[in-house]
């Protein structure tokens, strides 16, 4: 099965994707209001970004109603997994340990985060052949 290639979203596109993942299918107005709650952003900027994202295949647009409804094409986990995998290959030469070491050295992880990482590694290790 061929892996779909995800064009890396810009920071602004990722912010819109987060809104769509949290809210589900949304109008431009919904996305604009949600983003505007944390920082100033223009309605036409959100509209233009959603149009670009539609062309890129990152979101779909339902045009059945007067207010178009936008929806993320891929679920959050799949997008994050693919972006992380791409970064792992491009930046760290495929070395998962390099990625984790750099991520943890860049900022202090909480005790809870470290415990979650340990739990995930144990779970991952149990699934190995």
Automatic annotation (TrEMBL):
One of its GO terms (molecular function) is DNA binding. It comes from the Bacteria. It holds the Pfam family Penicillinase_R. GO terms for biological process: negative regulation of DNA-templated transcription. Keywords: DNA-binding, Transcription, Transcription regulation. This is Transcriptional repressor, CopY family. InterPro entries: BlaI_family, WH-like_DNA-bd_sf, WH_DNA-bd_sf. SUPFAM superfamilies: Winged helix' DNA-binding domain. Belongs to the BlaI transcriptional regulatory family.
């Amino acid at each position: 099965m061929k892996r779909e290639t995800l064009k890396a979203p810009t920071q602004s596109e990722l912010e819109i994707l987060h809104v769509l993942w949290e809210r589900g299918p949304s109008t431009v107005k919904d996305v604009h209001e949600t983003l505007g709650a944390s920082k100033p952003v223009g309605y036409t900027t959100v509209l233009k970004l959603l149009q670009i994202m539609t062309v890129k295949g990152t979101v779909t647009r339902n045009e059945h109603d007067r207010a178009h409804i936008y929806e993320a094409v891929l679920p959050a986990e799949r997008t994050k997994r693919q972006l992380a995998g791409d970064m792992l290959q491009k930046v760290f030469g495929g070395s998962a340990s390099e990625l984790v070491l750099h991520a943890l050295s860049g900022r202090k992880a909480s005790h809870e985060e470290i415990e979650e990482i340990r739990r995930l590694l144990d779970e991952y290790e149990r699934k190995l052949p």
